[in-house]
């Protein structure tokens, strides 16, 4: 989880809470959007990490030969 995604989620929760308290539906929706943006960044980071792991694994197998594990 990156600092940027955590900030988006935290900022979103705050905006959503302020929107609910003040009755500002637009601010509430902005908050929900910010939270979704943070979760999307987390998912992208996780996908990138998994892809890197797969690449490293395949590269290691290629270097060690097909019979070695």
How many angstroms does the end-to-end distance come to?
31 Å
The tally of helices reads 2
Overall average residue pLDDT = 90
| Beta-strand fraction estimate | under 5%
What general form does the structure show? rod-shaped
Number of strands: 0
The amount of helix comes to over 70%
- Give the structural class: mainly alpha
Main beta sheet: none
Describe the structure in brief.
With 69 residues, this protein is mainly alpha-helical.
Defining traits:
single chain; mainly alpha; 69 residues
Question: Can you walk me through this structure?
Answer:
The chain contains 2 helices and no strands. The radius of gyration is 20 Å and the shape is rod-shaped. Helix content is 87%, strand content 0%. With 69 residues, it is an all-alpha fold.
Walk me through the topology:
Layout: H1 3-22, H2 25-64
